Amino acid sequence: MDPIDVAVDLADLDDLLTRDETDIRDAVRAMARSRIAPYVADWFERGAPDDPRGLVKELGDLGVLGMHLTGYGCAGLSATQYGLACLELEAVDSGIRSLVSVQGSLAMYALWRFATESVKQEWLPRMAAGDAIGCFGLTEPDHGSDPAGMATRARRDGSDWVLDGRKMWITNGSIADVAVVWANTEEGIRGFAVPTATPGFTTVEMKHKMSLRASVTSELLLDAVRVPDECAFPEVRGLAGPLTCLTEARFGIIWGSMGAARSCLATALRYALSREQFGRPIAGFQLTQQKLADMELEYVKGVLLALHLARRKDSGVLRPVQVSLGKLNNVREALEICRAARTILGANGISLEYPVIRHMNNLESVLTYEGTVEMHTLVIGKAMTGLDAFR
């Protein structure tokens, strides 16, 4: 094992994992480091992966797409194993973890949990194998933290549904084969599995991003998109559907953010040991050691929190407010770790030769997507006080 990896895990966190868990973690780490890490800085600089569909297929072959779901070709692994996979993927890049999270924990989970059996059979095996890509359409140009006000509409027309509207900031949107779209209906908010080849469904890839540049982000445009009734989720109504999916995806963020933190911490430690100023490595100066020690403390605490929540999820007792605790704490602390690492690297910290500025930029998006700091703060506050401060 790399001595830097050992130094970053002073708490011997691996002692808390089973052999099956470390085997999955090591397999994902090996793939991420060999097949993604050498290229991801270039993808970030150019604003797109070389071959996103090919990358999805490789991730499907590895078994990480919908890996925590059962049946339909999914691996049926534990929440802890899924979390460890997210950590290793985001240690390479948040955009890659986002691709996997949207595929498995938003699009696939929504279909697995809510869709008709025919839709499940049509899409889930192909999505697990990486032969089909999904996206999740909830956020709109004017409706982010308050999705209840969404403007996208679906109306019945005979035995079909007709959808009109726009969705914004959709990961995988322009490469997706199926979109989970949430829309207002006369019966309240409902979900739909919309094949992207349906007439009237178009996408526009979003450019000029300074964050998550190694993943595809799109706007979805629905203009009289007609789908059969079997594409509508039959039972779920209201915000319970999309919020359940978001809770599932936020769990992966709790783990993934610690991957970005670990990458920056390891980079800062390696750099500090090799960079000499005033005749000795900067790692030998007290202020640098204080930064490294503080970064280590927050990383260890973040992984311990993620692992605790994963054990609760595997036991079936994880509550949404606990996911908010993990998402708020771990992303916020991961961003602080990345910023501290940037100061240790000095001017080199802004170069894509190192992963630090890339992780910093990515985490600025992770901090606010799938629930902003403010929203998770108020979720926690409501749970503590019993008082709703959202309005």
From TrEMBL:
Residue ranges occupied by any Acyl-CoA dehydrogenase/oxidase C-terminal domain in the UniProt entry: 238-384
SUPFAM superfamilies: Acyl-CoA dehydrogenase C-terminal domain-like (SSF47203), Acyl-CoA dehydrogenase NM domain-like (SSF56645)
Domain Acyl-CoA oxidase/dehydrogenase middle stretches: 135-225
Top-rank lineage group of the source organism: Bacteria
Chain ranges of the Acyl-CoA dehydrogenase/oxidase N-terminal domain: 18-131
Cofactors demanded by this protein: FAD
Keyword match Aminoacyl-tRNA synthetase: no
Family designation: Belongs to the acyl-CoA dehydrogenase family.
Protein name: Glutaryl-CoA dehydrogenase
One MF annotation (Gene Ontology) recorded for this entry: glutaryl-CoA dehydrogenase activity
EC number: 1.3.8.6
Pfam families to which the protein is assigned, alphabetical: Acyl-CoA_dh_1 (PF00441), Acyl-CoA_dh_M (PF02770), Acyl-CoA_dh_N (PF02771)
Keyword terms, alphabetized: FAD, Flavoprotein, Oxidoreductase, Transit peptide
